[in-house]
Amino acid sequence: MSELESQIENRRRKRAELDAAGIDAYPPEAAHDLEPTGVRERYGGLSGEALDQTPVELAVPGRVRALRSHGKTAFMDLHDGLDKLQVMVRRPQLDEGSATVLENADLGDYVWARGRMMRTRTGELTLLAEELRMLSKALRPLPEKWHGLADVEERYRRRYLDLIVNPETRAIFEMRAKFVQGLRNALNDRGFLEVETPMMQPLPGGAVARPFVTHHNALDLELYLRVAPELYLKRLLVGGLHRVYEINRNFRNEGVSTQHNPEFTMLEFYWAYVDFRHLMDFTEQTLAGLTEEVTGGTQLRWKGHELDLAPPWNRMTVVEAASHYSGTPIGQLDSLEGIENALADAGLERPANHDYGHALMALFEATAEGHLLQPTFITQLPVEVSPLSKQNREDPKFTDRFELYIGGMEIANAFTELNDPDVQAARFRQQLAAREQGDAEAHRFDEDYLRALEHGMPPAAGEGIGIDRLTMLLTGSESIRDVILFPLLRPETRSDGQDSIGE
Q: I need a labelling partner for 412 at 20 to 30 A (CA). Which of 109, 184, 252, 352 fits?
């Protein structure tokens, strides 16, 4: 028998002893006054003399994270995930049921203690317990420590344990929640309406990406998990909801990396009567302000680099960035031939989509993207890679669009929306031609969306902001899996070669 199996057997024996004594190891509720953090907040400033002069009686629940025995006296630390409270127990003063709970308590159990607040001789704020109850008997022990690569994956796979033993993990998700709430507040304060759009769609749209496919049995209908909510949110612009947003889950059937998870969270918002330049100003002000609010400043440390989100942020066209970082004269990037020569000079392959826009983006992504550590807006992306964006009036090869890069990662994507239904139909046909040539990520032809545009959509700009990648920057997390509570992982394989899911 392994050590783990022996521990589990011992804990099950203790549960049986509780059952034999008529003690419910899993009661349905636990009336209490405060959890440990609340006790410390309310009474942590009182001296032992003050607690003796004005007795405070409390009932406190928590998870047992330490057990110490000193003859007829025992101590346990109760945790609530944020802080702990020491509980002292004098065995001769306990009733029979409480004594049974104490004798059968283990690390990891949830226990309820009732008694009087005091301070020990060392000054530790302590609950002198008169009564103990078992709230949840833990049949498996908590891990003692995490180390090495294998344990990093175990943290992702057993996030509940990671949250228990690693306070820094909880801090990541608390910061994430605070930042998301700040984004909501910023939009709500400007009159935006939060909405919900379908996650299952008859056509995947709003982004260039491979979708996940599912099937509705009752309707015998093939559906797609959404790659973006964009086309539905813009239908709402047509309907007169001129400032809308959604904090949404998107699903893209593509590779997994430190920056990519097939299921991820985006903020998307659409703003009538403004263009992409307005969104650049809004994004810069909002993200810088929220970063200062949740971290205490605008400077972040990311992969050994010091990032500063204080405005103003850099702004470059995609041609300027590709020229600067590849060392190619800017005039050479005016033509497909010039870009292909630049790709060859850099030892890069020509993209499968043999057109100006895809070639330019291939050069930009290979030579410039990783250098964009400080916040940088990359503007005027090519028409071929922007099927939903309005063309730039001065140079129709490009669109009024930007991508925001911080830490070498794309953080946001925005553009002035294409609202001419005839031009949009032509763009969809171009995408269909690309699909026929083998581009599995090309956009589908959405007739219903075109019908909506024919009813008239106001001038507008829209933006998507990656919540997961922003959280990576804010918390210094180098993998997207660190900022997603339950990232996608391969199933565990047992020693007999079978997957362990469902057991």
A: 352
Nearest CA among 410, 452, 449, 418 for reference residue 266: 410
Rounding to the nearest 10 degrees, give the CA dihedral for residues 32, 33, 35, 38. Answer: 170
Same domain, 100 and 233: no
The enclosing domain of 24 has a CATH number of 2.40.50.140
Cα–Cα distance measured from residue 249 to residue 247, given in angstroms and rounded to the nearest whole number = 7
Task: Please report the DSSP string for 463-481 in residue order.
Answer: EEEEHHHHHHHHHT-SSGG
Residues 185 and 122 in one domain: no
Ordered DSSP codes for 37-49? HHHHHHHTT--HH
Let me know whether 184 and 306 are in one domain. Answer: yes
pLDDT at 203: 87
Distance (Å, rounded) from C-alpha 473 to C-alpha 303? 9
Per-residue b/e over 194-213, b at no fewer than 16 CB within 10 Å? Answer: eeebeeebebbbbbbbebbe
CA angle centred on 184, ends 461 and 195, rounded to 5° = 65
The answer to whether residues 257 and 297 belong to one domain is yes
Q: State the number of CA atoms in the 13 A half-sphere of 169 facing the CB.
A: 21
Contacts of 98 (CB under 8 A, 6+ apart): 89, 129, 130, 131, 132, 133
- What is each CA distance from 248 to 59, 195, 228, 310, in whole angstroms? 40, 10, 8, 27
Is 322 inside any structural domain? no
> In terms of domains, do 181 and 119 share one?
no
Q: Are residues 280 and 402 in the same domain?
A: yes
CA separation for the pair 105, 12 (Å, rounded): 11
Domain span at residue 93?
3-136
Neighbouring-strand partners of residue 128: 88, 116
Q: Are residues 279 and 411 in the same domain?
A: yes
Question: Helix (H, G, I), strand (E, B), or coil: what is residue 404?
Answer: strand
Q: Is 39 contained in some domain?
A: yes
- Determine what percent of the chain is predicted with pLDDT higher than 70: 97
CA–CA distances in Å: residue 33 to residues 40, 43, 113 = 13, 13, 11
CA-CA distance, 54 to 33, in Å (whole number)? Answer: 17
Report how far apart, in Å, the C-alpha atoms of 375 and of each of 5, 59, 293, 360, 406 are: 52, 50, 18, 21, 5
Residue 73 lies in a domain: yes
Supply the DSSP symbol for 25: S
pLDDT in tens, 360-398: 999 999 999 999 999 999 999 999 999 999 999 999 999
Domain-located, residue 252: yes
d(CA 113, CA 128): 9
pLDDT digits (tens, 9 = 90+) for 20-45: 999 999 999 999 999 999 999 999 99
C-alpha angle 60-64-68 in degrees, rounded to nearest 5? 110
Judgement on whether residues 32 and 119 belong to the same structural domain of the protein: yes
For residue 413, give both structure tokens: 């994507």
**Residue whose pair of structure tokens reads 């909880």 in the numeric block:** 170
